[in-house]
Amino acid sequence: ARQLPDPVLKGGVSDLTATGDDLGTLTRQNDTQFTVGISQAFPRAAKRRLRGERADAESDLAERRLITDRLRLEREVGLAWLDVWKAHEAQKLARLSEREAQLQVETMQIAYASGRKPQAELREARVALELLRDELAKLEQDDWHARSTLSRWLGDAAYRPLPDGAPPLPDPPPLGALLESLRTHPHLDIAAAEVEVAAADVRLAKQAYQSDFSVEVGYGHRPAFSDYVNLQVSVDLPVFTANRQDRGLASKQSELLRAEALREDSYREHAAEARLNHGDWTRLGARLAHFDDTILPAADARID
Known about the structure:
four-stranded antiparallel β-sheet; 11% strand
């Protein structure tokens, strides 16, 4: 993008007779001439430098998008695997509950046979058992769906047995540090690169007010006269700026404002999502601790 444009080769015939007895002749008219030449445009050095900077910004934007795509793939695979693990672990819990419900039915049958429990309670225990079995069937279906989704990324490996235990997941950083690190989030990196491209477009639009020039060198052959050489220089005349350059610059400045606003909006979106998920993680951790410390011990005592 920083280089001069390619030269242009030109050639032709001029002053060729179009009427009369010498129609179409190439040699019997003194004015007929054959020309060949080369023209070269010379955009201003500042324009070429800015075009290079814009190309660098576009390349950087593409690289950041590639990095983001790779991270997105890792995230999607991880989330899909966690869905499989969740369904797998839920099935193990459901089977434990099923065994407990089966014991409850057997207990009710003994109590009903001995006249200590009415038939309705026995039927209620059987219904509870069958509902648990239906829940287990649903979890098996969820497991199949989750593995099918995971196979989109891993193929047949998605159907392998899972390892025991939960995957190690580190605690997130404090909310303040998390929000501060968002400025380097891959999505924000892309938005920042888009701002750089838009800013480069603005700088290029300002250069449109400056004239460029081109040079053309030609050689002419005249069969009846001496050959000749010509040299021409062309210069742009950006005199109607209100209809062209002003509008182009205003358009690029609006696109820059849009890119900056989208970058800020992306940060706010991610910050809101971070606050929500960090709050959920904190509250769910407290609920989990309450289950481990209070609810599960009471439930174990009740089962005993």
